[in-house]
Amino acid sequence: QVQLVESGGGLVPPGRSLRLSCAVSGFTFSSHVMHWVRQAPGKGLEWVAFISSDGNNKYCADSVKGRFTISRDNSKDTLYLQMDSLRVEDTALYYCLTAGGYWGQGTQVTVSS
Amino acid sequence: QSALTQPASVSGSPGQSIAISCTGTSSDVGGYDYVSWYQQHPGKVPKLMIYDVNNRPSGVSNRFSGSKSGNTASLTISGLQAEDEADYYCCSYTSSSTFVFGTGTKVTVL
Protein backbone atom coordinates (compact mmCIF):
# COMPACT_ATOMS: atom_id res chain seq x y z
CA GLN A 1 0.00 0.00 0.00
CA VAL A 2 1.01 3.63 -0.38
CA GLN A 3 3.17 4.92 2.45
CA LEU A 4 4.80 8.28 3.06
CA VAL A 5 7.01 8.56 6.13
CA GLU A 6 8.43 11.92 7.18
CA SER A 7 11.44 12.31 9.43
CA GLY A 8 13.99 14.92 10.47
CA GLY A 9 11.87 17.18 12.62
CA GLY A 10 12.91 18.38 16.04
CA LEU A 11 13.50 21.31 18.39
CA VAL A 12 15.95 23.93 17.17
CA PRO A 13 16.75 27.54 18.13
CA PRO A 14 15.95 30.38 15.72
CA GLY A 15 18.42 30.76 12.88
CA ARG A 16 19.38 27.10 12.70
CA SER A 17 18.71 24.58 9.93
CA LEU A 18 16.87 21.29 9.57
CA ARG A 19 16.41 18.88 6.69
CA LEU A 20 13.17 16.96 6.49
CA SER A 21 12.90 13.71 4.56
CA CYS A 22 9.89 11.87 3.21
CA ALA A 23 10.43 8.25 2.24
CA VAL A 24 7.73 6.81 0.00
CA SER A 25 6.69 3.33 -1.06
CA GLY A 26 3.80 1.65 -2.79
CA PHE A 27 3.73 3.82 -5.90
CA THR A 28 6.02 5.05 -8.65
CA PHE A 29 7.58 8.04 -6.91
CA SER A 30 9.37 9.30 -10.02
CA SER A 31 6.04 9.83 -11.80
CA HIS A 32 4.45 12.08 -9.19
CA VAL A 33 4.50 15.76 -8.30
CA MET A 34 5.14 16.11 -4.56
CA HIS A 35 4.25 18.79 -2.02
CA TRP A 36 5.11 19.93 1.49
CA VAL A 37 2.30 21.40 3.60
CA ARG A 38 2.51 22.55 7.20
CA GLN A 39 0.10 23.19 10.03
CA ALA A 40 0.96 25.33 13.03
CA PRO A 41 -0.54 24.29 16.38
CA GLY A 42 -4.27 25.01 16.37
CA LYS A 43 -4.07 26.68 12.96
CA GLY A 44 -5.04 25.89 9.38
CA LEU A 45 -3.15 24.27 6.55
CA GLU A 46 -0.42 26.23 4.77
CA TRP A 47 1.07 25.13 1.47
CA VAL A 48 4.88 25.28 1.57
CA ALA A 49 6.38 23.95 -1.66
CA PHE A 50 6.04 21.57 -4.58
CA ILE A 51 8.38 19.88 -7.00
CA SER A 52 7.75 18.33 -10.39
CA SER A 53 8.18 14.61 -10.95
CA ASP A 54 11.61 15.05 -12.55
CA GLY A 55 12.75 17.65 -10.02
CA ASN A 56 13.32 20.35 -12.61
CA ASN A 57 10.51 22.65 -11.48
CA LYS A 58 10.23 23.85 -7.89
CA TYR A 59 8.05 26.48 -6.29
CA CYS A 60 7.80 27.76 -2.72
CA ALA A 61 5.43 29.94 -0.77
CA ASP A 62 6.50 33.54 -0.26
CA SER A 63 6.72 32.93 3.49
CA VAL A 64 9.63 30.49 3.01
CA LYS A 65 11.17 31.70 -0.24
CA GLY A 66 14.93 32.06 0.02
CA ARG A 67 15.05 29.98 3.20
CA PHE A 68 13.51 26.60 2.28
CA THR A 69 14.50 24.36 -0.64
CA ILE A 70 12.54 21.39 -1.88
CA SER A 71 14.34 18.55 -3.65
CA ARG A 72 13.96 14.88 -4.44
CA ASP A 73 16.02 11.80 -5.17
CA ASN A 74 14.03 9.54 -7.46
CA SER A 75 16.64 6.79 -7.12
CA LYS A 76 15.89 6.69 -3.39
CA ASP A 77 12.14 7.37 -3.55
CA THR A 78 12.69 10.25 -1.15
CA LEU A 79 11.52 13.86 -0.96
CA TYR A 80 13.41 16.51 1.00
CA LEU A 81 12.85 19.94 2.50
CA GLN A 82 15.98 21.86 3.48
CA MET A 83 14.97 24.54 5.97
CA ASP A 84 17.51 27.28 6.72
CA SER A 85 17.31 30.42 8.86
CA LEU A 86 14.42 28.94 10.81
CA ARG A 87 12.05 31.31 12.59
CA VAL A 88 9.69 30.84 15.52
CA GLU A 89 6.77 31.12 13.08
CA ASP A 90 8.02 28.07 11.18
CA THR A 91 6.92 25.92 14.13
CA ALA A 92 4.44 23.42 12.71
CA LEU A 93 3.68 19.85 11.78
CA TYR A 94 5.14 19.30 8.32
CA TYR A 95 3.44 16.88 5.93
CA CYS A 96 4.59 15.50 2.61
CA LEU A 97 1.89 14.56 0.13
CA THR A 98 1.26 13.54 -3.43
CA ALA A 99 -0.85 15.50 -5.85
CA GLY A 100 -3.21 12.52 -5.80
CA GLY A 101 -4.03 13.00 -2.13
CA TYR A 102 -1.78 10.61 -0.23
CA TRP A 103 -0.36 12.19 2.95
CA GLY A 104 2.27 11.19 5.46
CA GLN A 105 1.66 11.38 9.21
CA GLY A 106 3.83 14.48 9.54
CA THR A 107 6.99 15.44 11.42
CA GLN A 108 6.99 18.14 14.10
CA VAL A 109 9.31 21.12 13.78
CA THR A 110 9.62 23.41 16.79
CA VAL A 111 11.70 26.57 16.58
CA SER A 112 12.33 28.07 20.00
CA SER A 113 15.13 29.52 22.04
CA GLN B 1 -0.38 35.17 -1.54
CA SER B 2 -3.37 35.64 0.74
CA ALA B 3 -5.36 32.68 1.99
CA LEU B 4 -8.64 31.94 0.24
CA THR B 5 -11.67 33.05 2.23
CA GLN B 6 -13.94 30.45 3.82
CA PRO B 7 -16.66 30.88 6.45
CA ALA B 8 -15.33 30.06 9.91
CA SER B 9 -18.19 27.70 10.62
CA VAL B 10 -21.17 26.02 8.99
CA SER B 11 -23.71 23.84 10.72
CA GLY B 12 -26.63 21.62 9.80
CA SER B 13 -28.86 18.89 11.09
CA PRO B 14 -28.46 15.24 10.11
CA GLY B 15 -29.87 14.61 6.66
CA GLN B 16 -29.64 18.23 5.57
CA SER B 17 -27.40 19.66 2.88
CA ILE B 18 -24.80 22.31 3.54
CA ALA B 19 -22.45 24.27 1.31
CA ILE B 20 -19.04 25.69 2.14
CA SER B 21 -17.77 28.56 0.02
CA CYS B 22 -14.18 29.32 -0.91
CA THR B 23 -13.58 32.76 -2.37
CA GLY B 24 -10.42 33.81 -4.14
CA THR B 25 -9.52 35.92 -7.14
CA SER B 26 -9.09 35.59 -10.88
CA SER B 27 -5.44 34.73 -10.14
CA ASP B 28 -6.33 31.55 -8.33
CA VAL B 29 -9.84 30.07 -7.97
CA GLY B 30 -11.28 31.96 -10.91
CA GLY B 31 -8.38 31.36 -13.24
CA TYR B 32 -7.89 27.61 -13.02
CA ASP B 33 -9.92 24.44 -12.59
CA TYR B 34 -7.48 23.24 -9.96
CA VAL B 35 -9.48 23.55 -6.77
CA SER B 36 -9.36 20.76 -4.23
CA TRP B 37 -11.07 20.18 -0.88
CA TYR B 38 -9.72 18.44 2.20
CA GLN B 39 -11.46 17.10 5.29
CA GLN B 40 -9.58 16.99 8.60
CA HIS B 41 -10.86 15.41 11.78
CA PRO B 42 -9.22 16.56 15.04
CA GLY B 43 -5.72 15.14 15.43
CA LYS B 44 -5.91 13.39 12.08
CA VAL B 45 -4.23 13.74 8.70
CA PRO B 46 -6.22 15.68 6.09
CA LYS B 47 -8.11 13.63 3.52
CA LEU B 48 -8.68 14.62 -0.09
CA MET B 49 -12.42 14.85 -0.81
CA ILE B 50 -12.58 16.69 -4.15
CA TYR B 51 -9.97 17.54 -6.79
CA ASP B 52 -10.05 19.60 -9.97
CA VAL B 53 -13.20 21.43 -8.80
CA ASN B 54 -15.68 18.56 -9.00
CA ASN B 55 -13.91 15.19 -9.09
CA ARG B 56 -14.13 12.67 -6.25
CA PRO B 57 -11.25 10.31 -5.51
CA SER B 58 -12.09 6.64 -5.32
CA GLY B 59 -13.68 5.79 -1.99
CA VAL B 60 -15.11 9.23 -1.22
CA SER B 61 -18.85 9.26 -0.69
CA ASN B 62 -20.99 10.73 -3.48
CA ARG B 63 -22.62 12.89 -0.81
CA PHE B 64 -19.66 15.22 -1.38
CA SER B 65 -19.68 17.37 -4.49
CA GLY B 66 -17.78 20.40 -5.72
CA SER B 67 -18.51 23.28 -8.04
CA LYS B 68 -17.17 26.66 -9.07
CA SER B 69 -18.64 29.94 -10.27
CA GLY B 70 -16.34 32.82 -11.05
CA ASN B 71 -13.89 33.35 -8.20
CA THR B 72 -15.84 31.20 -5.72
CA ALA B 73 -15.69 27.45 -5.34
CA SER B 74 -18.10 25.45 -3.20
CA LEU B 75 -18.20 22.11 -1.45
CA THR B 76 -21.65 20.67 -0.87
CA ILE B 77 -22.32 17.90 1.61
CA SER B 78 -25.71 16.30 1.16
CA GLY B 79 -27.40 13.96 3.62
CA LEU B 80 -25.26 15.34 6.45
CA GLN B 81 -24.02 12.68 8.87
CA ALA B 82 -22.37 12.87 12.29
CA GLU B 83 -19.09 11.62 10.80
CA ASP B 84 -18.96 14.67 8.52
CA GLU B 85 -18.23 16.89 11.52
CA ALA B 86 -14.70 18.10 10.82
CA ASP B 87 -12.65 20.98 9.47
CA TYR B 88 -12.69 21.54 5.71
CA TYR B 89 -10.10 23.35 3.62
CA CYS B 90 -10.12 24.39 0.00
CA CYS B 91 -6.92 24.71 -2.01
CA SER B 92 -6.24 26.34 -5.36
CA TYR B 93 -3.44 26.60 -7.87
CA THR B 94 -2.35 30.19 -8.53
CA SER B 95 -0.95 32.28 -11.37
CA SER B 96 2.41 32.32 -9.56
CA SER B 97 2.67 28.54 -10.03
CA THR B 98 2.09 28.11 -6.32
CA PHE B 99 -0.85 26.84 -4.29
CA VAL B 100 -2.90 28.48 -1.56
CA PHE B 101 -5.21 27.00 1.06
CA GLY B 102 -8.40 28.49 2.39
CA THR B 103 -8.84 29.72 5.94
CA GLY B 104 -10.76 26.59 6.90
CA THR B 105 -14.35 25.88 7.90
CA LYS B 106 -15.53 23.98 10.94
CA VAL B 107 -18.60 21.89 10.11
CA THR B 108 -20.86 21.08 13.04
CA VAL B 109 -23.64 18.50 12.87
CA LEU B 110 -26.39 19.65 15.20
Describe this structure in words.
The complex is a heterodimer of chains A (113) and B (110). With 113 residues, chain A is an all-beta fold. Chain A has no helices and 10 strands. Chain A has a 6-stranded mixed β-sheet, with no helix packed on it. In chain A, a hairpin with a 5-residue loop joins strand 4 (34-39) and strand 5 (45-51). Chain A is globular, with a radius of gyration of 13 Å. The mean pLDDT of chain B is 97. In chain B, strand 5 and strand 6 form a beta hairpin. In chain B, 0% of the residues lie in helices and 44% in strands. Chain B is mostly beta strands. Chain B starts with 8 loop residues before the first strand and ends with a strand. The chains are: A mainly beta (113), B mainly beta (110). Chain A binds chain B through residues 35, 37, 44-47, 50, 57, 59-62, 95, 100-101, 103-106, and chain B through 1, 3, 36, 38, 40, 45-48, 51, 57, 87, 89, 91, 96-104.
State Rg of chain B.
13 Å
| Uncertain parts of chain A | none
Q: Tell me the number of helical segments of chain B per DSSP (H or I, 4 or more residues long).
A: 0
- Biggest interface found: A-B, 19 and 23 residues
Describe the structure using short key phrases:
heterodimer, A: 113 residues, mainly beta, six-stranded mixed β-sheet, four-stranded antiparallel β-sheet, 10 strands, 50% strand, B: 110 residues, three-stranded antiparallel β-sheet
Task: Annotate the secondary structure layout.
The complex is a heterodimer of chains A (113) and B (110).
Chain A: E1 3-7, E2 10-12, E3 18-25, E4 34-39, E5 45-51, E6 58-60, E7 68-73, E8 78-83, E9 92-98, E10 107-111
Parallel strand pairs in A: 2-10
Antiparallel strand pairs in A: 1-3, 3-8, 4-5, 4-9, 5-6, 7-8, 9-10
Chain B: E1 9-12, E2 18-23, E3 35-40, E4 47-50, E5 64-69, E6 72-77, E7 86-93, E8 99-101, E9 105-109
Parallel strand pairs in B: 1-9
Antiparallel strand pairs in B: 2-6, 3-4, 3-7, 5-6, 7-8, 7-9
